[in-house]
Specification:
heterodimer, A: 169 residues, mainly alpha, 7 helices, B: 131 residues, alpha+beta, 2 helices
Chain lengths: 169, 131
């Protein structure tokens, strides 16, 4: 295992954490209306280094983020974390099976994340009637996924143009 | 605007299909959860998963329910209910506003309080999730 590669992935994981914590602290209209800035990094790592690396970044973000925000092992952790990991798996699978652009991948990830969150909330907390929130959650998933996807696409283009894309792998 | 130029042509066919499916799903679920019938609507409150007897929305009243974190206050006015106070940190439930029509619900997840409106002549707009 290339040490440089490991070090870079670890640094990116730290960056993902910073984004996640920044987002957690920043004021929002409604707590669930997050852009998911940490997913910027997860998606980038998926594109640059593949699924195992992206999974490790996601797990690190989950555990350390949960520790710092004090939500480790709470319902938000289980629901959000489960949804995050499953949506990452969905993105990795879709990347192999379909011809999706960065934006499409991100939208798929965001919508999967929202749907799994609702399913887990029902299973874990036993709340019924959450389907009433579906239009809202799906719309936000579409929007946030689109924005994050565009940003990641832009970053990748810049990295390619500067010759970094090949060098970091 | 010139910054958008580099995003042109980025969407593949699969992307567009995905976005289309998402939009169809959004419209479908939005239409499916519409139930604008008025009638004898009642409020069912669940605390920690245990339902309380239904409370009619027709009469104005103030309720207080006790969950794991403390007391959540619910106000029924003008045939609608809303959470006015709750011991949670984010107060999402308070900002959720009123529930009036069948199928609408408001929750305070930290305090395990779920309240939803039932009753009225239910038309085709019924919850997809059910027993």
């Amino acid at each position: 295992m290339n040490v440089n590669r490991t070090a870079r992935i670890a640094t990116l994981a730290a960056f993902a954490l910073i984004l996640f914590l920044f987002e957690a602290l920043a004021p929002r209209m409604l707590p669930w209306m997050k852009l998911g800035l940490g997913n910027l990094v997860t998606l980038l790592v998926l594109l640059a280094y593949g699924f195992p690396a992206a999974l490790s970044v996601a797990v690190v973000k989950l555990l350390v983020g949960g520790l710092v925000t004090g939500t480790l092992a709470g319902p938000a952790f289980v629901i959000g974390g489960g949804a995050g990991l499953l949506s990452l798996t969905a993105m990795a699978a879709a990347r192999r099976l379909l011809v999706l652009s960065t934006v499409g991948l991100s939208i798929l990830g965001a919508i999967t994340h929202q749907l799994v969150q609702l399913i887990l909330a029902r299973a874990y907390l036993g709340i019924e009637g959450l389907s009433h929130f579906l239009p809202l959650f799906l719309t936000w998933g579409l929007l946030s996924g689109g924005i994050v996807g565009l940003i990641v696409y832009w970053v990748v283009q810049r990295l390619r143009a500067a010759g970094w894309w090949e060098r970091i792998q | 605007m010139s910054i958008w130029n580099e995003f042109r042509g980025i969407l593949t066919l699969a992307d567009k299909v995905l976005i289309l499916c998402a939009i169809v799903g959004i419209i479908g679920t939005a239409l499916g959860s519409c139930d604008r019938t008025l009638g004898q609507h009642e409020l069912v409150i669940e605390i920690d998963g245990r339902p309380m007897p239904p409370v009619p929305l027709a009469d104005d009243r103030q309720l207080a329910v006790i969950g794991p974190l403390g007391t959540t206050r619910i106000s029924i006015q003008n045939r609608a209910a809303r959470i006015t106070h709750s011991p949670c940190t984010n107060k999402v439930c308070v900002s959720f506003g009123q529930v009036r029509y069948s199928g609408q619900l408001a929750v305070c997840l930290p305090n395990a309080v779920v309240m939803r409106v039932v009753g009225g002549e239910t038309s085709a707009g019924v919850d997809a999730i059910s027993h």
